[in-house]
Amino acid sequence: MDPDRFSVLWLQAGSCGGCTMALLEQGRRGVFEELATHGVELIWHPSVSEETGEEARAILEAVEAGERRLDALVVEGSILMGPGGTGRCQILAGTGRTMADWVTSLAARAGVVVAVGSCAAFGGIPAAAPDPAEATGLQFDGPDRGGALGAGFRAKGGLPVVAIAGCAPHPGWIVETLAALAADALGAADLDAVGRPKFFADHLAHHGCSRNEFYEFKASAERASDRGCMMEHLGCKATQAVGDCNQRAWNGSGSCTDGGYACIGCTSPGFEAARGFLATPKIAGIPVGLPLDMPKAWFMALAALSKSATPRRVRLNAISDHIVVPPGRPRRGGEGGET
Predict the structure, then answer these.
(1) Is residue 121 classed as helix, strand or coil in its secondary structure?
(2) Which of 44, 84, 232, 298 is 20 to 30 A distant from 257 in Cα terms?
(3) Residue 84: pLDDT band by 50, 70, 90 thresholds?
(4) Which H or E element spans position 107?
(5) What is the SS3 string spanning 293-306?
(6) 293-315 tens-digit pLDDT
(7) CA 280, 282, 286, 292: dihedral to nearest 10 degrees?
(8) What are the φ and ψ backbone dihedral angles of 107, each rounded to 5 degrees?
(9) Residue closest to 40 by CA, chosen among 247, 184, 206, 137
(10) Distance CA 161, CA 154 (A)
């Protein structure tokens, strides 16, 4: 163990492994080179480390006993507290102890605790009803404070749980958060109300969306293959979901909305309990969820004006899977127009 490096221990609790899969896509040189560049040492990860079970158990025991420094405990996946609060829905193999017990014990030794993914942050998909495993996040149970570690938990460094939310989170969010922590450049003021780092949580997924021209004119897609805005009919929550998802490429290029899939708000507590995906809940024909970045009355007024002024090109392209009307040639005198 290098005493000059930021030591990270990664545990997988009630997880599909998707956050680790996302992490592996980071950087042209590969995630391990990226982490090393920032002085981060991954002392153990259940999916990528080479240690045998006995060796891995020795690492956990040394950290728990205070014999090995732990700068960051990273947890991926929900903490399964069932049945009946015993935590025995998940036993860490070879130890005879529950994952909930290990996480609680190791968190007390860590300089900072990081929840990677919305499952670890808030409970996520495993916490969706009926939830027989009694899944919860580290410091939140859905939108409610508490979780496995308790609302008042603070790591040795003084921070609450740092929540890199998302299902899965962007790999850049994970590496940049660990790099900032290693550089002692992430403090309490840099986290939002539920522990998400503001460098990505101060944005909306809507910002930078390639469909924004359709959004501006409220020209809506009607089918999954259409090119228009998916907010009105197809359940897109990008105007309500935090994240710079459309401002940085995923896996080299693209995003959910670029690929024609509506944003499901996966960085938000309780997103798994939403009333249906890919269909917009409405009351009297008005979407229940409206943009976070403007008053609702303003949005309704602007939407009505925008629809009345929608260019024919935008209106027709919105309900097609390809461009059927290209931009028109400029008219004489330099004014723009449509043919």
Answers:
(1) helix
(2) 298
(3) very high
(4) helix 99-107
(5) CCCHHHHHHHHHHH
(6) 677 666 677 777 787 788 889 98
(7) -60
(8) -60, -30
(9) 184
(10) 7
Torsion, Cα 97 101 102 103, to 10 degrees, reads 150
In Å, how far are 7, 31, 123, 178, 186 from 171, measured between CA atoms?
19, 9, 20, 11, 18
pLDDT at 332 over 60: no
pLDDT tens for residues 34-48? 999 999 999 999 999
Cross-strand pairs, 113: 73
192-250 pLDDT tens trace: 999 999 999 999 999 999 999 998 898 999 999 999 999 999 999 999 999 999 999 88
Please state, in angstroms and rounded to a whole number, the distance separating the CA atoms of residues 56 and 92. 11
Provide the residue ranges of all domains of the chain, joining segments of one domain with +: 6-199, 203-322
SS (H, E, C) 142-173: CCEECCCCCCCCCCCCCCCCEEECCCCCCHHH
CATH architecture of 6-199: 3-Layer(aba) Sandwich (3.40)
pLDDT at residue number 334: 46
Structure letter (DSSP) for residue 186: -
* pLDDT value, residue 146: 97
Q: Is 46 exposed, middle or buried (0-12, 13-18, 19+ CB in 10 A)?
A: middle
CB 320 within 8 A of CB 227: yes
Instruction: Between 218 and 77, name the one with better pLDDT.
Output: 77
Place of tokens 């009926």: 130
Write the single-letter amino acid at 47: S
Q: What would the two tokens of residue 171 be?
A: 């790999």
| 114 vs 27: which has the higher pLDDT | 114
C-alpha to C-alpha distances, 230 to 166, 168, 227, 291, nearest whole angstrom: 20, 21, 8, 13
Class of domain 203-322: few secondary structures
